[in-house]
Amino acid sequence: MAVLAFLGAAAPSILLALVLGGGVAIGALVLLAARRRQRSWWVALLAGLLTAVVIFGGLALDRSYTTIEYGTVGLVKRFGGLTGTVFEPGLHWRVPFIDELVVIPTVVQSYETSDSPDQSGADYRDIPVTAQTIDGQQILIKYTVLFRIPPSAAVAITQRVGPTLEVVENVIKAHSRNLTRLLAQGYTAEDLYSGDGIFAYQQAVTTALEEEFAPYGVVLEDFLVRKIDFSQEYIDAIEQQQIAQEQIETARYQAEAAEYERDRQIRLAEAEAERIRLMAQADADRQRLLADSEAYSIQARGEALADFPQVIQWEFVRNLQDVRWGFLPSDSVTPLLPVPELGAEETAP
Questions:
Q1: What is the pLDDT of residues 304-328, one digit of tens each?
Q2: In contact, 222 and 240? CB cutoff 8 Å
Q3: 3-class DSSP state for residue 143?
């Protein structure tokens, strides 16, 4: 298969080589025969014309085909104007010595602005755009435009603008540099210094470029803001502002911490006071319960003694220690325990 593909692609060149070689060989043989036979000069002339015709035919054959590489299209130009025929990648035939080709890239290409254009790897390179913010700050904008020319619009774009170099110069470069400069005037330096502001600015430029490219047929693949440079004075001012802001934030955090600590101490004091109050209340309740219990106990004992007076005597005797007998006068005090009287038989002699 590889051999067949090679022969198919190289067939015109091989055929051209055979035709030219055959023409030269025929001319040489005719000249040699004329010399041997000593013919007249017109034989030599005829041989030369035949050789010229063969060589011309070979050259015409070589000019009648062309190969279009991938990522490009070929626009057929005839007598200075485009015919409208577009050759896609592959092998194509054309009218020799009349049709010419304008090759237009259709892949994504890049236009980039940077501080060192000669060191950039973009397809088209340029210097940064100088702009001014709404608050008067001078900035340098470095960006990249990714674009492509669709095959279906290649003829119209080439007829209206020109080949790719003219498209870059008159459409990509002109509109991108103009819009990046104009739209930057709608933002403050602080907006373009932070991430969110840069994203908003990038989206605004992208939308504007899409609208500007659309009438030409050029497709905007992407617009990328790589970097925005500010003056050193502004950078120093921003750094000082950030330092001051950090100090303010630190002071605020410290004040909040002190306030929190004060509230914490207040809550602790309130909790301690509540604890003491609850303990005092609990102790008072305990004392009240003890007093109530003691009063009830006294009342109960009093009622018991009123009902059973002998209990007092019993308690008295029960609590005596190391006492075997006790005597009390019988005329004035009732004995705690009745002592039996001694009989006559129990009287000592």
A1: 667 666 666 666 666 666 655 555 5
A2: no
A3: strand
pLDDT tens for each residue of 150-194 = 999 999 999 999 999 999 999 999 999 999 999 999 999 888 987
End-to-end distance of the chain based on CA atoms, in angstroms?
164
Polymer length of the chain: 349
Query: Environment class of residue 57 by beta-carbon count within 10 Å: exposed (0-12), middle (13-18) or buried (19+)?
Result: middle
Mention every residue, 6+ apart, whose C-beta is less than 8 A from residue 334. Answer: 328
- Segment 239-275, tens digit of pLDDT: 677 677 777 887 788 888 888 888 888 888 888 888 8
Closest CA to 176 of 137, 216, 136: 216
> Against a cut of 0.90, is the pTM above it?
no
Q: Which residues pair with 72 in a beta bridge?
A: 105
Q: Is the dihedral of CA 336, 340, 346, 347 positive or negative?
A: positive
Q: How does pLDDT run across 31-57, given as a tens digit for each residue?
A: 555 555 555 555 555 556 666 666 656
- Asked if residues 115 and 128 have their Cβ atoms less than 8 Å apart, the reply is yes
φ/ψ of 34, rounded to 5, equals -65, -40
Q: Contact at 8 Å (CB) between 64 and 94? A: yes
Domain spans in the chain, listed from the N-terminal domain onward: 1-62, 66-105, 109-230
Give the whole-angstrom CA distance, residue 152 versus residue 104: 12
How many Å apart are CA 65 and CA 225, to the nearest integer?
44
Cross-strand pairs, 148: 219
Q: What is the CATH number of domain 109-230?
A: 3.30.479.30
